[in-house]
Amino acid sequence: MAVEIPEMSRRAPAAVPHGGGARAGRAGLAAMMALCVGVALTFLALPIVALFAEVPLGSVPDLLGDPVVRRALEVTARTNAVANGLILAFGTPLAYVLATRRFRGRALVVTLVELPLVLPPAVAGIGLLAAFGANGLFGDDLSKAGIFLPFSEWAVVLAVTFVASPFYIRQAIAAFEGVDPTLTAAARTLGAGPVRTFWRVSLPLAAAALVAGWVLAFARGVGEFGATIVFAGNVQGKTQTLTLAVYEQLDANFDVALAIGILLVVLSAAVLLTYKLIVSWRDST
Amino acid sequence: MERLDLAIVSALRTFELDVELSIGRETLALVGPSGAGKTTVLRAIAGLRRPDRGRIALGDRAWFDAKARVDLPPERRSVGLVFQEYALFPHLTVRANVAFGGATRVDELLERFGIGRLADVKPAHLSGGERQRVALARALARDPAVLLLDEPLAALDAHTRAVVRGELQDLLDELGLPSLLVTHDFSDAAALADRIGVVIDGRLRQLGSADELIERPADAFVVSLTGGNLLTGTARSLRGGGSEVALDAGGVVCSDERADGRVSVAVYPWEITVRPGNGATGAPNEIVAPIASLTPTGGRVRVRMGPLTAECASDDVERVGLRRGEPATASFAPADARLIAISA
Fold first, then answer.
1. Per mean pLDDT, which range of A16-25, B42-51, B141-150, B218-227 is the poorest?
2. Do residues A92 and A172 lie in contact, with contact meaning Cβ atoms separated by under 8 Å?
3. Contact A189 B81 (CB under 8 A)
4. Does B49 contact chain A (CB < 8 Å)?
5. By the CB < 8 Å criterion, does A190 face chain B?
6. Cβ–Cβ under 8 Å, residues B256 and B242
7. Distances in whole angstroms, Cα of residue B124 to Cα of each of A178, B86, B92, B93, B339
8. Residue to substitute from A179, A183, A189, interface B, most B β-carbons within 10 A
9. Where are the alpha helices (DSSP H) in chain A?
10. Per-residue DSSP letter, B342
11. Which residue among B83, B91, B101 sits closest to A191, beta carbon to beta carbon?
12. Which residues of A touch B87 (CB under 8 A)?
C-alpha cells in the first residue's frame, strides 16, 4: 500500500483532462506576475535612484550648505517641532476620550478628526485661509488682537498641524482602544484615580502604538506642501520649508533641489524604518 | 472589622439582578452558572458597575446609595478585587504590581506569598499559580476592608488548583475580612466559603452552609449544582407518614418526606449503596441497572448506573467486585430521598 500511493499520485495529473493546458496556464500566470512585479518595483525605485544618480554625492554637503537650504531647514525644524508638540499635547487627550467614552455622535467626531487625511491639501489651505485669513471667519478678531496669521511661520505650524494630526490621532485612538479595560479597572480598585490610571497604566501600555502613530504624523508634516503654500505662502526664511524650497529651486538651481530631495529621501527612509522597528518590537512584546 | 451590606437591583441583558447580602467576618461564595450575574455583584461592590437601584455600605459608610445619590468611585472604596484572569499590569514587574496598590507593605507581602524571588520578573514569565499569588498580594497591598475574588481558581490547571485552593483557604481564615468570592464550582465554594449563595438568573435562590444546601436543597438546580441525583416522578403521601413516588422512568421510591404531585427526588451519591448483581430484595428504593462507568476520584469511585451516580470507597468496589458493564443494584434509605416539588 505504502508503495502504491505515490504511484497513484504521480499518475493523477495525467488523468485530469486538459492537464497540459492547465500547466501552460500556470506558467503564463507566473510570467505575468513576474512582469507586473518587475514593472511596479522599477517604477517605484527609479525616481529614488535617479535622485542619487543626477547629483554627484560628493557635492551634496556643499549644496546643502546653501543659505536657502539652511533657512528652509530651520523653518521646517521649527514649525514641525511646534506642530508636533501641538498634535501630541491636544491629540493624545482627544484620542483617549474618543477611545474610552461612548456617546452620541462619536462616529461623527471621529470622521471629522480623520477628514484631513482624505482632504486635498490645497483645500485644507483654502479652509485655513477662510478661517484665519484677513477676510476670514476670525480674521477681524485676530487682526484686532494684533495677530496676522497668513504668510507667517505660525501659518506653517497650523497647516502642518491640520494636515498631519489625523495620522497620529487615528493611531492613538486604536492604541487606547487596545488597552484591556480590565487593567484600568484593576488600577481603579487599587486606589488609583482616573489621572493616575492614565499615566501609570493606559499611557505606558499604549506608548509603542502612540510613537508609531506620531512617526507617521511627523513624516506627513515634514512633507507638507499644498496647504502650506496656499495658507502660508513661500517666503524664504519665513514660511519656506524644505519641500517648498525644492519647488522654488527647480527654476533657480536644480542641483540644490536634487540635494534637498536626497536629504528628504534619507529622512523619510529613516522614519519608515523607525516605524517598522517600533511596530515589530511592539508585536514581539 | 465592619460588615458589608448590599441590596442592589441592576438590569442585565435578559433578566434583572436583584440580590441582598450581608457579609460579616466570613467568606461568602456566590455559586451559579456563568451569566447568572455573580460577577456583576462583585463589580457593583468594587464600584466598576453602577447598579440601577439599591445600597452598598461598609458599616455605616455608604459606598453606593441610589436614593441619597451616593456613588463613590472605585478608588475610594476599600476593596481588594482579584480578577478572574488576575489582570496583572504586563508592563510592570511583580514588585511594581504589588506596590501599585500600596508601597508600605510590599516586601512583607512578597514574603508572605512566597514571590520574593520573582520581584523583578514581568507577569508574562509567571505560571498561573504565581500570577494568582501576585494578584492576591497586590489586592491586599491596599489593606482593603473587603476582599472580592472573581473565579479565583478558574484560570488554573487541575494540579495547581488543588494547591492554590489550600493556600487560599488558609489565607481567608487568616485575614478574617468580609470576603466574597464568585465561582461556578460548588466544590471550590464548599472548600473556601463559610456560607454559599446560589445565584440563578440574577436571584439568590438559596443561602446557607454547604451542609445546609445539601441537606435541604431549595430546588432541583441546587441539587444538581451540589452534585446530587435527580429522579422525577409523581408523589403520593401515605397515611402512615412519608410518600411513595412513582418514577417517570419506572419503579417506586419511598421517602420519609410528605408530598403530593409532581416532584424531583434528590439523593446524593454518597448516600447510595451499590452491590453487584441483580439482587433486588424487594426493599424500597432499589434500582437495578448495568454499571455504565467506574471513575476513581482520589480514594473513592464514582459509579454511574442507570439514572444514578453513586460514590463508593475504592476498597468496597474491589471487595464486592463491581465491574463495568455488569448489572448492579443500587439502594438508598427513604430518609435520604428528599422531595422537591416541581412547580408547573
1. A16-25
2. yes
3. yes
4. no
5. yes
6. yes
7. 18, 12, 10, 10, 51
8. A189
9. 4-15, 19-54, 60-64, 67-100, 106-114, 121-132, 139-144, 153-177, 181-189, 194-197, 203-222, 226-231, 242-252, 254-284
10. P
11. B101
12. 180, 182-183, 185-186
- How far does A168 lie from chain B, in Å, by closest CA? 23
Query: Quick one: pLDDT at residue A7?
Result: 44
Query: Could you give the count of Cα atoms lying within 13 Å of B53 in the half-sphere of its Cβ?
Result: 7
Q: Which three cell numbers stand for residue B115?
A: 514571590
> Which residues of chain A are within 8 Å of residue B79 when distances are taken between CB atoms?
189
N residues, chain A: 285
**Contact map slice: A 200-219 vs B, CB within 8 A:** 200-201, 204-205
Among B80, B85, B91, the residue with its CB nearest the CB of A205 is: B91
Q: What is the pLDDT of residues A224-265, one digit of tens each?
A: 999 999 999 888 888 999 999 999 998 888 888 898 999 999
Across B101-132, b (16+ Cβ under 10 Å) vs e yields bbeebbeebbebbebeebbeebbeebebbbbb
Q: Which residue has the cell 502613530?
A: A213
pLDDT tens digits, one per residue of B63-119 = 999 999 999 999 999 999 999 999 999 999 999 999 998 888 899 999 999 999 999
Phi, psi of A173 (to 5 degrees): -60, -50
The sign one gets for the Cα dihedral A177, A179, A185, A190 is negative
Q: Which residue has the cell 514569565?
A: B125
Closest CA to A98 of A16, A8, A172, A29: A172
Residues in chain B: 344
In total, the C-beta contacts within 8 angstroms joining chain A to chain B are 53
Nearest to A190 among B47, B85, B138 (CB): B138
Chain centroid to CA B108: 31
User: Considering only alpha carbons, which residue of chain B is nearest residue A201?
Assistant: B89
Model-wide pTM > 0.90: no
From chain A, the residues in CB contact with B39 under 8 A are none
Listed in sequence order, the residues at least 6 apart from A129 whose beta carbon sits closer than 8 Å to its beta carbon are: A136, A150, A230, A231
Measured from the Cβ of residue B339, the count of other Cβ atoms closer than 10 Å reads 22
d(CA B17, CA B40): 8
User: What CA–CA distance (Å, rounded) separates A9 from B222?
Assistant: 60
